[in-house]
Amino acid sequence: MKKIAFDQLKETLYHEKMENGLNVYILPKQGFSKTFATFTTKYGSIDNDFVPLNSTEYNHVPDGIAHFLEHKLFEKEDGDVFQQFSKQGASANAFTTFNRTAYLFSSTSNVEKNLETLIDMVQSPYFTEKTVEKEKGIIGQEITMYDDNPDWRLYFGVIENMYQHHPVKIDIAGTIESISHITDQLLYECYNTFYHPSNMLLFVVGPVDPDQIMNLIRDNQNKKDYKDMSEIKRRFEDEPSSVAEKKKVLQMNVQTPKCLVGVKACDVAQSGKEMLKNELTINLLLDILFGKSSKSYYELYNEGLIDETFSYDYTQEEGFGFSMVGGDTEKPDELSERIQSIMMEAKSGNYLTEESLERTKKKKIGGFLRQLNSPDYIANQFTRYSFNEMNLFDVVPTLEEITFNDLKKSAEQFFEEDRFTVCQVIPNK
Amino acid sequence: MSVANEMVIKTEGFTLHIVKTNKYKTNTLVWKMKAPLNAETVTLRALLLNVLQSSTKKYPTTTALRTYLDDLYGAGFFVDLAKKGEQHIMSFSIDIANEKFLKDSTPLLQKGIDFLAEVLLNPNIENESFHQETVEKEKRILKQRIQSIYDDKMRYSNVRLVEEMCKGEPYALDANGIASKVEEITPQNLFDYYKKAISEDELHLYIIGDVNENEVETFCRNLQFENRSPIQLERKEGSNVKEVKEIKEKQDVKQGKLNIGYRTNVHFGDQDYFALQVFNGIFGGFSHSKLFINVREKASLAYYAASRLESHKGLLMVMSGIEAKNYDQAITIIREQMDAMKKGDFTDQEIEQTKAVINNQLLETTDTSRGLVEILYHNVIANQNFTVDDWIQGINKISKQDIIDVAKKIELDTIYFLTGLEGNGE
């Protein structure tokens, strides 16, 4: 077990790579009541075209299958694992993103039992025709719920506009039609391919003794027989750099229109340090341009173009990346034009000052400390960073390294007319 | 071992609560202002809160104010409106880095407290009136916020249930105010109301973090308020439900939203309050509860089916998203679960499981400083003195008979259904 100390932050992280390839991290947090653990596989909604284990041919699986599998792992022959967790005083959950599926629990007692329950649950799949059929009704209602949610439709509307081929444009839960094609056999195929320990990461954070926890995990894994895995083969079509559609307007049962401007990222083949620096720089850039202390926020707010729902963010993973800016607005066309022109002006150097960079860096450092108060944040983000070969604890030093020149270069490269797109939700007639 | 040591200090005009802990890398300040909820002041208070947080005399624009906060290592500053029972609470929260985790060790806590004093006591006024443009801007934002409830159907149906169920009671009001009353507010009458609120509201300040109590008290000297004797609300005894109301509303939605309200006739602070909490846990509070198991897992009717308590008002609310054609089946299943609870049709194992999960949830909530403040503030609302440990012990003592007894007090009041245009709504 390796020990990694972060002196300034007063944190110590423990790491071990198990013989079967599983990466385990433990972050003791004394003083907290709860322990939080996530068990995550590097497999999400975009992994829909791959070579299944023990096969040589690529297979294309139905949309929404990674999320469906997430639901089904909680059910076993003798019942629902949610029950097991609650008997042990824990609350359990799971979520699926574009490129990972995480299972988690938090509890203030019986931590060791809960940890074993979590690991064993994920490592003992049980799917039958009958349980798969039953789940279609529940997930069908989950999909319908999101269909009625204008913010979700807007969010996916922007992504659909941006991407021509990449599966990031497919709704994580799929559609009622696509999930109708899911079978127990297909679930096993995905499971066997992606849930090998070497494609997974286990993170435990809380008032725990790292030696004790690591021993438990070692014993648990030694009881299980895993064959060595070769690298998983995934396939993605080439994605052009320009957006698929410039604008889309959805009519929905709302009173206030909504508008989001999307920017499709270039250079998305990055990972590691390079990716960390790129994503932090774009985050600083957006903060300087659209944060509450920015000149443009003041103007847009004063002109009545935005309200408190206005937000901006940047998402980057291996193979795709995008930023979104916008919110509720009475004047969606005017807002989208203004956002795009602010970005184009930033490209030519407007709005960006050394002073705003320094101030925004300080803001980000304080924000990072705030996030470290949350065990959930640490576990989830550490895993995401690690799957992209980055380290969460490098955030502050990397932020400090970013220069004004980096910021300007980033604005020049990131903001390009043909990578802009707009999606709006407007009230039904 | 005690979960949280709350130190309570009465100072002039307000009560200071300090919880010293080294769990966090930031220090949190939460300022709470409480007054009775009523139709005359609810909209004024909602607007006031937002006008105060947008600028001050020293930081006369949002840009100036937010720039200052960014310079303080991005101190988090946000406001929130809530109703707890029939009381209306404005909260101002500041979350500021603890400098011992920074290279630069300028003390930040005092700056945070000074900033709070600036927001509360030195507002952006001109000639005994709030800054006109700021008020106009915030009026627009407030109207949009009230309107936005309509666009989120889950929230909307919840608000509609409360409106229908509590017609004629202050609780029917939304904490964000009444849309049609926003326009009437002027910079002058808002300032008049500010003076009233600042001199009459019940005031509490919570400070949570790795702080020195004496230092905190010294820093707070800038926060000076007149003494006051806040209004204690008298609780009206639970109305007996005469007839169950059933309301169906049609809108262009794909998924129907079923919301059901019950009167529990039990409030936070009552002897059987802990029994009610355990009741709610077995009935619909968690993923092992009867509603989740029977509506979702067994009948496959819904993605979510849950219940929650409005502890200070004595309500139990059920919510679920279903297809319109399954309305009758869902209602039948939910009513069966309530009957099962009243008949004691639940096992010792369900009780134990629920207690374990409630205690877990409570302790987890204390791990976030905001969560801890919310737990401690229940005492202020109900004029009680529970510690987190009392709470846990209270839950652990509940017997099966206690749960049956509390279940028998619960009365169905209103069923609200938001259904699609094609649905079977009448």
From TrEMBL, chain A:
Protein origin, superkingdom: Bacteria
Gene3D superfamilies reported for this sequence: Metalloenzyme, LuxS/M16 peptidase-like
SUPFAM superfamilies in UniProt: LuxS/MPP-like metallohydrolase (SSF63411)
Single GO term (MF): metal ion binding
Domain Peptidase M16 C-terminal: 182-363
Location of the Peptidase M16 N-terminal domain: 63-175
NCBIfam families the record matches: YfmH_fam
Name of the protein this chain belongs to: Peptidase M16
Protein's organism: Heyndrickxia oleronia
From TrEMBL, chain B:
MF term (GO), any: metal ion binding
Residues annotated as transmembrane: none
Ranges for domain Peptidase M16 C-terminal: 185-356
Listed InterPro entries: Metalloenz_LuxS/M16 (IPR011249), MPP/UQCRC_Complex (IPR050361), Peptidase_M16_C (IPR007863)
Record protein name field: Peptidase M16
UniProt source species: Heyndrickxia oleronia
